[in-house]
Amino acid sequence: MTDEGCSDVTSALKSNPSHLRELDLSRNKLGDSGVKNLSDLLKKPKFKLEKLQLSNCSVTEEGYKALASALRSNPSHLIELDLTGNDPGQSGVKQLNDLLQDPDCQLKTLRFLSPAAEKACRYVNRVVGENPFLQRKLNLSGHKLGDTRVNQIAALLQDKHCQLNTLTLSGCSITEKQSLILTSALKSNPSHLRELNLTGNNLGNTGVKHLCAVLKDPHCKLERLRLICCDMTDEGCSDVTSALKSNPSHLRELDLSGNKLGDSGVKNLSDLLMNPQFKLEKLQLVSLYCTAITV
């Protein structure tokens, strides 16, 4: 079915709206036009739909905007909404977030992620009690993730809907191997992240090298990076400074405390600080194993 068929369906339902409780139009080419017709129906007080499924219906930002507007006009009935497989654009997730802030909104289930990311989101919700896609922050500090959880978090990070700007995984027992999985996910979707904290994980120089592939990406706009006590030596520090030399303008805070950087690592940092494009405002190097700091 296309938007034309959706228009006929909504027109028919307008003449007899009060009994329908569940509507599944998934995997049809409704587009924004079809969803806008449906949104006009959702605004009607007599329309008491409880479950609406619109997965893989070619809905974009405009369609999300129309849906959110309609549901704000008549928020009290819908309890389940499935938008999996559509593209909300930059503001689509914000439209959903604004809708969920409405105290009259009764939505209990909202789906718009890939299946793998949805599993990760359910785990995150159990641990931190919030939806990271709507709150923009994810803090799993102190939870030993293991391979299964790391893979789930990676799936969540690379989902096109993910717009996390703060990721804190301090003390999560992340290994060098797992750091490759996480950083590969971040590299596929780097533009939203502004703060990353991997403190207290066993990254080593190899894990830090994986992270440097993200830092080099011109789409990476990271502003705060914490790698405290990550088993890094001067080799890892050299990789970090090399990566930041190629993409220096965004980072404002860097904390490498508790690593064995030595004089060589600090000298590499000193060279980076001389770069006029490097706008760092805060640098922490506590408990370094070096004989002289010449920053």
Can you describe what's shown?
Helix content is 44%, strand content 10%. It has 295 residues and is α/β, with parallel strands linked by helices. It folds into 2 domains: 3-111, Alpha-Beta Horseshoe (Leucine-rich repeat, LRR (right-handed beta-alpha superhelix)), CATH 3.80.10; 115-284, Leucine-rich repeat, LRR (right-handed beta-alpha superhelix). The strands form 2 sheets. A 6-stranded parallel beta sheet has the order 5-6-7-8-9-10. Strands 1-2-3-4 form a 4-stranded parallel beta sheet, with no helix packed on it. Strand 6, helix 8 and strand 7 form a beta-alpha-beta unit.
Give the SSE map.
Blueprint (H helix, E strand, L loop, with lengths): L2 H12 L7 E3 L6 H12 L8 E3 L7 H13 L6 E3 L6 H12 L8 E3 L3 H14 L3 H4 L1 E3 L6 H13 L7 E3 L7 H13 L6 E3 L6 H13 L7 E3 L7 H13 L6 E3 L6 H12 L8 E3 L11
Parallel strand pairs: 1-2, 2-3, 3-4, 5-6, 6-7, 7-8, 8-9, 9-10
Helix pairs in contact: 1-2, 2-3, 3-4, 5-7, 7-8, 8-9, 9-10, 10-11
Summarize the structure.
By secondary structure, this protein is of the alpha/beta class.
